[in-house]
Design a protein that fits this description.
about 140 residues, disordered N terminus, four-stranded antiparallel β-sheet, about 15% helix, mainly beta
Length: about 140
């Protein structure tokens, strides 16, 4: 009984702990996994968003997640997610809706190329970006 209570308490604490990651799954490919390291979009001394690249089902995705702490301080932001190749071409670019905190790029046929996820957070006419690590 004590073990069950400890597990429940740990799970509840994890739900409220800052910076706890949540599971991400690209649309249409539950078996996709993150590749490369996560990048962070920073604005005004704060982390605005995480940028990750996923691969699976023969395709790549870019993923951007805006942190709740940052989103609570700013209104009217747009997020862009894409997969960038070495020739600096953006593939699968998706611009999220106003104040949308989680954006996936479209699935891209770039699995055989060197790629990085690109995340952009736009606030008004200004924008800040980050690339995940390059994967070949």
């Amino acid at each position: 009984m004590k073990k069950a209570l400890l597990i429940i308490a740990a799970a509840v604490a994890g739900m409220f702990a800052p910076g706890v990651a949540h599971a991400e799954t690209p649309p249409g490919c539950a078996s996709a996994q993150q590749i490369g390291s996560t990048a962070y979009v920073n604005f005004d001394g704060r982390t605005a968003a995480s940028v990750k690249q996923f691969a699976g089902c023969g395709t790549n995705w870019g993923y951007v997640f805006v942190w709740a702490d940052w989103a609570s301080r700013y209104d009217d932001f747009h997020v862009v997610a894409a997969v960038a190749t070495d020739d600096n071409v953006e593939h699968g670019r998706v611009v999220g809706r106003l104040d949308q905190r989680e954006v996936w790029s479209k699935a891209t046929a770039t699995i055989s190329r060197c790629t990085r996820a690109l995340g952009v957070v736009n606030l008004g006419e200004d924008g800040w970006s980050a690339y995940s690590s390059r994967r070949c």
